[in-house]
Amino acid sequence: MENKDGFLETSKAERSMWLMKCPGVVSRSLKTPQLSSSSSQAVAKVILSIDPLVSNDSSSTQFMMELVGTETGDVPKRYSMDMTKDFVPMSVFSETSQGKLSVEGKIKNKFDMRPHDENIENYGKLCRERTNKSMNKSRQIQVIDNDNGTHMRPMPGMIIAAVFNEKKKAPTKTSDTKRTRRDRGEMEDIMFKLFERQPNWTLRQLIQETDQPEQFLKDILKDLCMYNNKGANQGSYELKPEYKKATDNTNI
User: Fold this and answer.
1) What are the CA-CA distances from residue 38 to residues 8, 26, 27, 43, 95 (Å)?
2) For residues 198 and 191, what is the distance between their CA atoms, to the nearest angstrom?
3) 187 and 105 inside one domain
4) Buried b (16+ CB within 10 A) or exposed e, 91-123
5) Which InterPro entries match (predicted)?
6) In this predicted model, what pLDDT tens digit does every residue of 1-54 receive, in sequence order?
7) Which segments of 76-213 does DSSP mark as H helices, in order?
8) Phi then psi for 216, rounded to 5 degrees?
């Protein structure tokens, strides 16, 4: 709301008002115009019940609202009103078509509506019908004027892109299970010859040189070599000292 004049009418600011939370079916029923509608026509009435024996106890007071319209259909007509006084203070404002703002009053009591005990069964039936109606979606058949299907065909560029993506796929690498393991003694001789060629090898280099399964090479390296965790040769293997001496003596 935007007050163009900057003036707020507060003559009714202290008027007591009720705030009522009602089900959607009741709200729609109250908004439905009656056949003989007039500005003063009542749409509902509130029935206040007080026990004379405990009239001083406010909790004994019971409120009930009854719809007086005859065009309510299957909507239950009687509702219990549970009163709540513990709520944030609120006021009611109104705005005219000319943009004039007014305070209509302040909320004294807040009510939550629920179907009266005598209407519980009918209200439950109404809720079930509403749920079933929302779940049953109506299907529609639409006739397409352009029946040649051109708008559903893939564009030429889309086909080329799909073919290009298939060609772009990298070839699958050969798994270790397809590599044939050599004899352990033969493989150790090959390893000694490789370390004669150069003193340090990485695991990847040895797999490429020997074409052997990775785990098989790791088992051999664990027995014959040391792994360098630091230094200039970090990440590579070299022969253990005792095997280095053996290869040196063999070369002599």
Assistant:
1) 29, 20, 18, 11, 22
2) 11
3) no
4) eeeeeeeeeebbbebeeeebbebbbbeebeeeb
5) TFIIF_beta (IPR003196), TFIIF_beta_HTH (IPR040450), TFIIF_interaction (IPR011039), WH-like_DNA-bd_sf (IPR036388), WH_DNA-bd_sf (IPR036390)
6) 555 567 888 998 999 998 888 877 778 777 765 545 555 677 788 888 887 777
7) 120-135, 156-168, 184-197, 203-210
8) -65, -45
Q: Identify the H or E element spanning 66.
A: strand 62-67
Give the residue numbers spanning the domain of 227: 180-251
The answer to whether the beta carbons of residues 102 and 5 sit under 8 Å apart is: no
Is the Cβ–Cβ distance between 76 and 22 less than 8 Å? Answer: no
Count each helix (H run) and each strand (E run) in the chain, helices first. Answer: 7, 9
Q: Which two tokens stand for residue 131?
A: 């749920």
Cβ count near 239 (within 10 Å): 22
- Residue 83 has, within 13 A of its CA and on its CB side, a CA count of 15
* 71 inside domain: yes
Which stretches of 39-169 are DSSP H helices? Answer: 120-135, 156-168
CA atoms within 13 A on the CB side of 120: 3
H-helix or E-strand spanning residue 17: strand 16-21
What is the total count of domains within the chain? 2
| Amino acid letter, 85 | K
In the prediction, which pLDDT does 244 show? 80
Q: What CATH number does residue 188 fall under? A: 1.10.10.10
The CA–CA distances, whole Å, from 188 to 143, 220, 240, 244 equal 77, 7, 13, 13
Contact in structure between 89 and 16 (CB atoms under 8 Å): no
| Same domain as 104, residue 189 | no
- pLDDT tens, residue by residue, 121-164: 666 777 777 677 777 777 777 777 766 655 566 666 555 555 55
What is the H or E stretch that residue 238 is in? strand 237-239
